User: Which sequence fits this backbone?
């Protein structure tokens, strides 16, 4: 029988890439994604046994929600800073940046941050390669609901991105 | 035949083989479904493109080392229960007091009660000095877990039920303003064995320079087996608060509901009377506590609720037709109620006592 530490190591090795991938899908920032992934594993280790059946589902959900919370926090900070220094902001925005890939990503992440938690989580979990069954387990819903949730989330994301670009 | 649902069509985008035979025939002949499918496929492609992310280059081995070297997550009272933000601590002193009371209950089981299977609850006043005096009992033997407590945060009420073996209680009344987000935690049965050890007791007493009363005859080597749980805890509130950027920084729960199998204590060779007499002879216990313990008619069927008198007050209430104890802090900012009806139930939160009792009365288990 595996010791607690051995079980955790095995879980870490099998799930770390996926957990970091989910966080990266949300944040589009590999460095911050790894930070989130490590935080998620540290929290898990303090709370649960690595041999628990629900471990992967817990990690996937925690990765999505922790990263989405960071994204929303970041968005709020950016908004506050812009509101506090509008003149400075207008001076520092470079119109050329609008053409850059980074700017597209920023706008998509801003739209993602505006979505409700469940649709946002469905999108990032599925986009991170989780199967319908895995997404369902992570979110505690039936597998049969995933198609509908995904469809609505994709439509909502598209609408939010369009709204963001027309602002 | 009705048109294909959006869920079915969306799934078809990812897995064309997922359609049943009749769905496939309908789709082949239905221009409307084909148009809807095309729109969904386009949205799915757009979402996949939009959610593209920069490449991750991971060093799993060094990440593992970092995680292993990190300090353990903050203790969370065994469960994922409230960690109060420093700024909000004074406001929720009441809730903290209620939590302390619950923590002390466990201590009371282990240290005091032999051959114990509670059917009712009874508050007793305790002071910090009482707690220190009682904690000396742990020097009188060795505690081991034959089944470790393994509290787990789970994803749903159904998961909690599968761990605890009973249905998660459902609140039919929840006060206005309390979030509808519920986090479930569950714990299978845990069993601890406390073995009295006269030599260890003597050594402990000598090392502290205190003289503790000698163990009664025949108690050396006696074992108390304490069984707690299984239990389910429901925490209402968005624990990963919206403004937080760290999952360590969680909000105060708005309501906590817990149900646990009543604890059972069995003993190999100690009687309830022997232990009660012994506990009452421990120096440092307050007169109030001694009197309250003596006043309990049948200690083997009464769950003692220690109420820290500096921080909280208690009243007896009727909950679901049985006798319960309500604990409230002196500021009125938080309260809890505990009762036994087959299992032990607790409802607590930063709420008025009347609200907590109303939630308790409306609980369906």
Assistant:
């Amino acid at each position: 029988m595996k010791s607690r530490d051995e079980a955790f190591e095995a879980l870490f090795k099998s799930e770390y890439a996926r957990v970091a991938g989910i966080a990266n899908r949300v944040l589009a920032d590999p460095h911050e994604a790894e930070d989130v992934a490590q935080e998620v594993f540290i929290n898990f280790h303090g709370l649960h046994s690595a041999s628990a059946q629900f471990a992967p589902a817990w990690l996937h959900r925690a990765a999505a929600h922790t990263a989405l919370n960071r994204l929303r926090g970041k968005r709020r900070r950016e908004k506050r800073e812009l509101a506090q220094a509008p003149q400075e902001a207008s001076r520092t925005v470079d119109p050329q940046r609008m053409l850059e890939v980074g700017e597209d990503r920023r706008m998509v992440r801003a739209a993602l941050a505006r979505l409700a938690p469940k649709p946002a989580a469905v999108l990032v979990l599925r986009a991170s390669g989780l199967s319908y069954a895995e997404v369902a387990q992570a979110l505690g819903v039936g597998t049969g609901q995933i198609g509908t949730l995904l469809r609505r989330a994709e439509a909502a994301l598209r609408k939010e991105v369009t709204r963001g670009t027309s602002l | 035949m009705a048109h294909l649902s959006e869920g079915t069509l969306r799934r078809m985008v990812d897995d064309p083989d997922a359609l049943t035979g009749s769905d496939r025939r309908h789709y082949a002949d239905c221009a409307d479904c084909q148009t809807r499918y095309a729109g969904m496929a386009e949205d799915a492609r757009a979402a996949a493109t939009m959610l593209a992310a920069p490449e991750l280059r991971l060093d799993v081995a060094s990440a593992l080392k970092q995680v292993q070297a990190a300090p353990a997550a903050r203790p969370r009272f065994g469960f994922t229960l409230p960690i109060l933000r420093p700024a909000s601590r004074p406001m929720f002193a009441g809730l903290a007091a209620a939590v302390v009371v619950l923590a002390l209950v466990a201590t009371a089981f282990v240290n005091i009660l032999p051959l114990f299977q509670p059917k009712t609850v009874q508050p007793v006043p305790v002071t910090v000095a009482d707690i220190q005096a009682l904690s000396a009992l742990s020097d009188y033997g060795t505690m081991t877990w034959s089944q470790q407590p393994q509290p787990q945060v789970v994803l749903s009420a159904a998961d909690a039920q599968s761990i605890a073996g009973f249905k998660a209680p459902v609140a039919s009344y929840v006060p206005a303003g309390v979030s509808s987000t519920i986090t479930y935690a569950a714990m299978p049965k845990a069993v601890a064995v406390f073995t009295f050890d006269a030599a260890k007791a003597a050594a402990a007493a000598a090392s502290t320079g205190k003289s503790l009363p000698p163990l009664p005859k025949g108690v050396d080597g006696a074992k108390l087996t304490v069984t707690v749980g299984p239990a389910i805890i429901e925490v209402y509130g968005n624990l990963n608060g919206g403004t937080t950027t760290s999952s360590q920084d969680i909000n105060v729960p708005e309501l906590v509901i817990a149900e646990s199998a009543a604890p059972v204590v069995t003993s190999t060779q100690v009687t309830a009377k022997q232990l009660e007499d012994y506990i009452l002879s421990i120096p440092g216990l307050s007169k109030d506590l001694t009197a309250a313990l003596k006043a309990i008619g049948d200690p083997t069927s009464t769950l003692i609720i220690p109420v820290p008198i500096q921080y909280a007050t208690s009243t007896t209430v009727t909950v679901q037709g049985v006798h319960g104890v309500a604990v409230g802090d002196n500021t009125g900012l938080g309260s809890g109620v505990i009762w036994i009806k087959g299992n032990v139930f607790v409802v607590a939160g930063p709420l008025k006592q009347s609200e907590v009792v109303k939630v308790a009365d409306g609980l369906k288990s």
User: Anything to note?
Assistant: Confidence is low (pLDDT under 50) at residues 73-115, 241-250 of chain B. Residues 31-50 of chain B form the longest helix (20 residues). Chain B touches chain A through 51 residues (CB under 8 Å). The longest strand of chain B covers residues 312-319.
